[in-house]
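STRUCTURE REQUEST FORM
Protein name: Serine/threonine-protein phosphatase 2A activator
Source organism: Oncorhynchus tshawytscha
Requested output: structure tokens
Priority: standard
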Amino acid sequence: STYPESGEPMDTIFMSLHDTPPIPVCQNFMVPKKEISMFPDMGKWKRSQAYADYMGFILTLNEGVKGKKLTCEYKVSETIEKLLVLLGTLDRWIDETPPEDQPSRFGNKAYRTWYAKLDQEAEGLVAAVIPEDKAAAAPEIAVYLKEAVGNSTRIDYGTGHEAAFAIFLCCLCKIGALRVDDQLAIIFKVFDRYLVVMRKLQKTYRMEPAGSQGVWGLDDFQFLPFIWGSSQFVDHPTLEPKHFVDEKVVNENHHDYMFLECIKFINEMKTGPFAEHSNQLWNISAVPTWSKVNQGLIRMYKAECLEKFPVIQHFKFGSLISIQPVKP
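Status: completed
Returned output:
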């Protein structure tokens, strides 16, 4: 089956797990590098296998979480457990690296110390997560983990960094470390834990939003949890889009819904009327159904993130996330 939204087959990414054998061990892994250096290169990105795989991954997961709560029952595999350990390590390093006293409020330099540790350890962290016969993939996949936590020069974080984490997870699917039946755990356990760590980074080191559109953007830092989070609400018997601006609803239901966790964090970080500090989300609360919200957010994500040169110029491509055009 394909998505009406994009025409991509639903299981492109997990294909290697049903119909064809997984990626052969002898595959030539490579350290990913930038390929989109000028605006005209954007066409190359949109026609690439990377774009098809990335959108396929996002939409497959979007389908998978439809109508399900964070607290529902699902399988937790060994790889998922190992990823949670990895994220727990990143979290612990924040505790071990307190912010420095400095004159400027934003962009605390202690973040660079934290990041240097990840830079040093990333390959080992990834090697501990993937099967031994795929160890050769660790240097390639580790690049996406390092790209997923913000920029250490600018001390900022944005949707491009978030996308790198989704690509990191997509790579783990492509080498067969994560499987089709891990779908719910990928979002509800791993991605949710990733968000907790990112919020802690953003808060602790007062990170700047990367390429933020200010009040006109959806959120200073994230986008994907709004897509997947709105899918969780599809066909909900009582909660409608208009309810997420009600703080009581948020406080009572955020444990079950990723979308509300995002709203709760915004409410903690921002002051003043919601309609003023989060205008786009306020507008979205007027959309009548969650499935309309979900479809609209997917279109917005493509337009505002995946088709924007300032975001895509930082993307890196290798053997798993390939810049080669989709095979006809």
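Reviewer notes: DSSP finds 15 helices and four strands in the chain. The CA atoms of residues 70 and 255 lie 7 Å apart.
Form closed.
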